[in-house]
Amino acid sequence: MLMGLWLPMTTATAQAISGQPADSVAVALAPDSISIHSADSVAAGQQAKKEWFGKRWINSITKRMNEPFDTVRDDGYWLRALKHGKVNLKDTTIHYPKFLSGCVNIYRWVDRTLNAQDPDYVKGNGKLFKLTLKNNNWLDYYQCEPDDKVIMSFRSKISSNLGLYFSILGISLGYSVDADRLVGGHPTSKKREFGFTCARFILEYYNLYNTGDMTVVMRDNNERETYRIPEFGGLERRSWGVSGYFFFNNRRYAHATAYSSSKKQLRSVGSWMAGFKVTRQRFSVNEEDMKEFYQDLEEELPEDNSIFDYTDYFLGAGYGYNWVLGPKWVINGTLMAHAGIKHAHSHTSSDSHSNMFAVNAKARAAVTFNHRGLFVSLQSYFDSHLFNNTDYKYKSNIFDFTAIVGVKF
């Protein structure tokens, strides 16, 4: 009893002398022992306990999936195999319920018809699921010349968004947010994308809306004067497009290797491709900002707030190539050229030429690193529209850069 009273008093006196806080030492008395623990050692013990619990949980799942189970190919085998992560959709000895059997048969037909490739050049990654973190950045630039006297150009700031996506068997679900929203600002852009890639072809869709500040420059060639409006925020850009391309060397060339890491290219190879592209672009001034905008440019206020509004119909061809740099690295370069008709909608400044010949160029590149289930990819994209007739010229460009980190499992 005297020992039990003396020890706390001694501890308190030592703390007073050393200036340490009273809670920095914990005294634990046991009938047969006395132990003293510092606050740091307690925190370290808690952290070790958490790490031990996490490893134990992972080891428990791994052990469960690797446990032996009944492999008899009866009607219940598919469920037992699913619980242990051993389902192979190409295994024809597995018996599924009627509905699942129909789904699996559709998958096998699609895979056999659309994804059959030369195993000496292309290999599947063997994974059903993929989790991807994607950062997308882009800027747009427009220039129009309604006559030989005036040139107007519009250049945006860089827009950025961040998204998280989950994929299963090529179907992807996800959500992205404007980077300005993440830091408490007002979102100024929206971008939605959808893509489907198989061995034989690729389909892509995008929808872009941007109201961020733009730098407006107007040059008068006759007077040799330049007028500039920096960071004007009253402009709206809306654009959408759909495109599709067929790969002629689809047995050996895997376009998805560099862009979605759903296949593995084993040898360097390229492919010619051909397809179509349809886009709609509308550039306008917000109604509440129209008066200010045209007064700044010393122009008369038009009846409609659209500066231009076009729909393009293109056919095109190009070439893509995969450079394989060892087992983990692949670089892709793709270049497409299109030609077709640009239709100007009636309310735009070029309504006297409703249908005009136009051209388009599209370039894409990617550098992708793969290590087991992890992949990292840096991708760039450039899309340019151009048409030119006797009294009206127009071009628009989109520059895009994307960084991707993902895991396959």
Overview of this protein structure:
- This protein has 409 residues and is an alpha+beta fold.
- The protein folds into three domains: 26-66, no CATH class; 77-114, no CATH class; 122-408, Lipocalin (Beta Barrel).
- 21% of the residues lie in helices and 50% in strands.
- The protein is built from seven helices and 19 strands.
- It has helices at residues 2-18, 39-66, 77-83, 98-114, 179-182, 256-259, 290-296, and strands spanning 25-29, 34-38, 122-124, 129-145, 150-156, 159-168, 171-178, 189-197, 201-210, 214-220, 225-232, 235-247, 263-265, 269-285, 306-325, 329-344, 355-371, 374-388, 393-408.
- The strands form three sheets. It has a 15-stranded antiparallel sheet that branches.
- The longest helix has 28 residues, at 39-66.
- The two termini are 61 Å apart.
- Mean pLDDT is 78; it is low at 1-37.
